[in-house]
Amino acid sequence: MNMQAAPQETTQVKGPAMQEIKTDVLVIGAGSAGLSVAAGASQMGADVTLLEGHLMGGDCLNYGCVPSKALIAAGKHAQAMRSGAKFGVSPVKPKVDYAAAKGHARKVIETIAPVDSVERFEGLGVRVIKEYGTFTDRDTVVAGNHRITARRIVIATGSSPFVPPIDGLDDVPFHTNETLFDLMEQPDHLLIIGGGPIGMEMAQAHIRLGSKVTVIEGAKAMGKDDPELAEMVLRNLRAEGVEIVEGAKAGKISGKAGAITVQTDNGTFKGSHLLMAVGRKANIEKLNLDAAGIEHDRAIRVGADLRTTNRRVYAIGDVAGGLQFTHVAGYHGATVIRPILFGLPAKAREDHVPWVTYTDPELAQIGLTEAQAREAHGDRLEVLRSGFEENDRAIAEGRAEGLIKVMVVNKRPVGVSIVGPHAGELIGLWALVIANKLKIGAVTNMVAPYPTLGEVSKRAAGQYYAPRLFDSQLVKAVVGFVQRWMP
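Below the sequence we write its predicted structure tokens.
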């Protein structure tokens, strides 16, 4: 008698049951853009679900704007100890505790974090799910054991550091902005590949904190900025000891921790640490956009209304492929609130968006640069200039190296470039002017307190009327007539 073995029983381990959620607004990503939408929509009565698979606050709070400006501040304090001679203060070599400077950056993050926390947003009525989201169809997203159907979906997943495929890079330890602020060991010699805003800000912060720094740029450092103003920044960085090598495309990287070599077509450079700062890429990998009918390439395709090719879905902030700034992300969030909640049209624009590189001196820009304005407007363009050397506050503080350029067409500013101390604060006035399409007279009519750096803007605006008043024979004739005949 043949005996057959009895079939073995199998036990299936089941995960938690899928939870079905229906919501008015689903926000994917809890960075600056997503948090703006979630807070606004919830407080105005919508049912809002927010997904975040990593850190609340996104790149800006945890790896970008916040810790970088904290580290820059530490560097400024160190530099002030070296540069007091002209004020009658004996310069001294600062004793820098690099780990403590990084601790300051961490403390700043911890101070701001509650504003972006799960607890705060749940207190606002937002349903927060700590999972990444993936589309399964045009209006459904799965996040962990949640299946979410939404009337409107907002993708706000931001961007991450772009790491180019350089020969040997995979075998060498390197940092991006996502890891740099966890580094507590003082770099002896920091190599930075990339001469854009992140690279130049971190270069200056580290040279001031006591590291040697070499910036390796394949094209032109700060190449997207007005070249006249950018050169003033680069000259100052070089004077402080930063080695800036332009036209040096990295071809091969080799070495190990503490001893890294970068070979370029313009020389070979050796250092102890390597920072990759060559740009950003949109975070779209986990989304399964094709399932939702959302067209994309390196970023998500959107119209001026920030809608994707799926009418139910919007994309805002860095993932939409435009200007990659935190304040743009917040602006996008405010823009899409209008159509999502009220069904009213709204379009985003970029001509009124300022940006700042937080080097010392700072460089700020809004609208068109001089070169862009000349190409767009030709002979109709007037460029107004005013140097900080004519500003009494700048002179008093020993910070008189700076320049403002205002591009004007038919009395309306179309662009402003500023280099100098607190340029990021000074550009705010021009953001107001350009956003509201005001004429240059709005600035000349302003009464600026004396002595402040704000007078730089008023003086620049005055250059528009100076030749029309002081060089006009008609004006002089009218004044002469009035003086002769007025009782």
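The chain has three domains: 19-56+117-161+281-342, 169-278, 354-470.
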